[in-house]
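Troubleshooting entry. Yesterday's outputs looked truncated, so today I'm pasting the complete records for two proteins to confirm everything comes through intact. If either block looks cut off, that's the bug. Protein one:
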Amino acid sequence: MKTEAAPPPVKVLIAEDQDDLRENLAEYLRLEGYEVASTANGRDALARALEMQPEVIVSDLAMPEMDGRKLFCALRENRSTADIPVIFLSAWADRQNVREGMQLGAADYITKPFRVEEVTAAIETQAKAVRQRQSHIAADCAEARLGLVRKLPHELLTPLNGILGPAEMLKMADCPLSKDEVSELGHAIFLSARRLQRVMENLLLHIDSLEKRRPLPSPHSSVGADALRRAIDEAVSAICEVTGSSPKRIRIMGDMPAAAIRGEDLKKVVLELLENALKFSPEDSCVDLHVGQIGTELRIAVRDFGRGMTSTQIAEVSAFSQFERERFEQQGLGLGLTICRNIASSYGGTLDIQSIEGGPTTVRCSFPVTGS
């Protein structure tokens, strides 16, 4: 009978400048079956974390060269280490240091002196959570692959047919065409090629997000209001060109503040939200695009007056999900809202959908106005 293979040992990185404490803890964990690496300062710990990709990091707060807080922030700014749980160790038992450590986002906080069993229990708790999360991600990837296999051929063939048809007419020597007819066929080829390009761009964005290959935005950058407004104008122009919609259908309201978001990311969010809104709205209706600052957040809200969504559909929004596709012919892979949510989340923002069946539908994305 085939037996399941034992799971690999949990990888732990220890950053502690007290030699005896570090060595004793590392040896104990190895005897308990963990794969352990250890360093004496935060700078070396960061390099080892990038190389080793541990499942849990145990770090002292007071260390030379780079202390525990700086190490934690550096880990969070790198996509490959951003989600690794960090357990802080410190001889500082006062409430202020405990509070500061937890406010950074530490997974746990253990004061010195401690029993090694305390550290082991904390590591085991965090490692279990990490592996459960990895299992869920693997399941999501498998579901995404299945969705891709089902939908991608159709989404590629449709624009390809839109290219091949006009191209075949253009190559026919015995089919005289006027200048206007040639221009019209060329425009049809261009629109189909742009649609094909966007399908592939969105697919690659989604894959990068699943594999965490998209670089994290800088938490300290802030982009001026004029640059962000240009990004919005570019998104409006691009979506009108691709969909053939009149710019008059898009009503832009509000004042754009400076915000801690890259122009290219804002443009992508606005483009995807507008395409969704235009796709599911009557052709003679308008779409409202609201921008503005609410408290410490930049809010982007797009409202359409289409058929709306039920609460169940809102809860089930995910990659490759399209509702009632059999009843309503609609194009796309269903990645738009997922991409917007991933971009907002990477900045510490959110995506929220409010809708009722029969409309209207409002999708809001929030981003920090200033970097933290």
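Protein two, checking that the full record survives here as well:
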Amino acid sequence: MEQVTRFLSELQQEQPIFSFAYIMTGSVATYKGINKQQTWLQMIEGEFIKKRKLKRLIDAKSLEEVYQIFLSTPLI
């Protein structure tokens, strides 16, 4: 994750990563990065990799199941 964070920080020096219209939803103490991209990377690692939500999304049998997985995910 450190390499991706560094890459995004360098990219942000050249162009915006998030548009000005983008607003972070919710506030989760678990995922507090120094900037938006680091916060999102922490959430992706914590929720989709460590908590295996990516596998659950792949294995979902319905759009309702996909919706419930995203609904249970902080920042989404």
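Both blocks look complete. Sanity check on protein two: The first helix runs from residue 2 to 14.
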